[in-house]
Amino acid sequence: EGTAVKKSENNEEGTTMNGLEYNGDESINDLPEEGQGIYIEGMDYDAAMHNCAGDEDILMSVLTEIKNEAPERIARMRELAAKKDYAGYEIEAHALKGLMATIGMNGLSERAKKHEFAVKEGNYDIVDSDVDGLLAEYEALCKTIKREINGIIKRID
After folding, report:
1. What angle do CA 42, 43, 49 make, to 5 degrees?
2. Average pLDDT, the chain
3. Most buried one in 8, 38, 46, 126, CB count within 10 A?
4. How far apart are CA 25 and CA 67, in angstroms?
């Protein structure tokens, strides 16, 4: 996967953003503007900002809430999958899909959607074989969100 930086007007490599170098895999439109503090690998920043009324404070609040409620959601989804309570799991997968779409994490949103629709279609093997992978990816994202938020707070102090 690509890393990102803001590129100059003539499309040449520019300065790095948050210590990352551009390798050509990310669109300039997917990057936060200089001076904005949020960069998470894989995030469609434009979509996240659109979904948060163009307000980075709202995006920060949403990210904080996602991070804070993740341990409970992960435990609940693991328990539902272990109990084979697919109806309950479908509801949680649906919620996760929407949360990830809100913050522009389209890959994880699509993965959660796959789980949701697998349950709707009775393809429980998809859930059983990928629940640990889905939740590990979600947990890793939440750790990244925590690091990013803590970095912003330190820069403000």
Report:
1. 170
2. 80
3. 38
4. 27
Give SS3 for 155. Answer: helix
Distance, first Cα to last Cα, the chain: 32
Q: What is the pLDDT of residues 48-82, one digit of tens each?
A: 999 999 999 999 999 999 999 999 999 999 999 99
Handedness of CA 148, 153, 156, 157 (dihedral sign): negative
Tell which residue, 74, 50, 79, 49, has the closest CA to residue 141: 74
Record the pTM.
0.75
DSSP of 37-67:
----TT--HHHHHHHTTT-HHHHHHHHHHHH
**Residues 6 or more apart in contact with residue 1 via CB below 8 angstroms:** 25, 41, 42
